[in-house]
Structure formats: C-alpha cells, structure tokens
What we know:
This protein has 4 helices and 7 strands; from the N terminus they run E-E-E-E-H-H-H-H-E-E-E. It is α+β, with helices and mostly antiparallel strands. It has a single domain, classed as Arc Repressor Mutant, subunit A. The strands form 2 sheets. A 4-stranded mixed sheet has the order 4-3-2-7, with no helix packed on it. The protein has a 3-stranded antiparallel sheet with strand order 1-5-6. A hairpin with a 2-residue loop joins strand 2 and strand 3. Helix 3 packs across helix 4. The radius of gyration is 16 Å and the shape is elongated. The N and C termini lie far apart (about 60 Å).
Amino acid sequence: MDNPIYIMAPKTKIREIFIVDKEGSFNVIFKRFAGEKKDYDFEGLTALRRLLNNEKARMLHVIKVKKPGSIYELAKILKRDFKSVSQDIKLLDRFGFIDMIAEKTGNRERLKPVVVVDSINIHLKI
C-alpha cells in the first residue's frame, strides 16, 4: 500500500482589502501578498459581496474544521452540487483565501482545499 505524499500549504496569511472612494463610488482593491504579481482591482462592491457571503464563510469553516481531502468530499459535507462548490473554490483560491494542495496516492492525484488566511482586514477610506 502506497503512503500518501503531502505537500504542505504555506503559513497562513492576512488578506488586506481596501475600499476607497473613487469619484463618488467605491473601488475595492485586494492587496497582494508578497510574491503575487498584481493587486486585484474591482469596479464596485458587487464582487466583494459575492466573495464574502455566508456560503463562502460556511465553506471556509468546513475546510478549516473538517479538513476535507478533496473538493468532492467538501461538496458531500456541505450537501451541495459539486459544480457549484468547485466554482466557489476557484473564486476563493483566486483571491488567496485557500490553496489547493496536490496529494498523490498511488497513481491518483487529487486537490485538497486548505485555508491559508487567518484574518481579513477591510479598510474603508473616504
């Protein structure tokens, strides 16, 4: 029986989100971590609401507490459709809330979601 090979996630981080006034509307900027190529810039608060909703909070909690071994296992725990969970995972991964860690067991490889953010600081500048 092959032992699984684990690749460890980097140390958890603080995600910085800045909301700034831009000519009468709010502009949301996700500050990059060291080593990332760019900041994420949005035209409004819609994307932030989509990212920081109750379902994503529930997903982050389940990933942190129950440590599912795959997206499929996460979907089963959440009792949600795999495709919807996969799309949400991609969004959380894109903005640095989670990392997808490759695990290899035998000839098979799967991606395990791991929370890499300790806290989210939101700064509002008017």
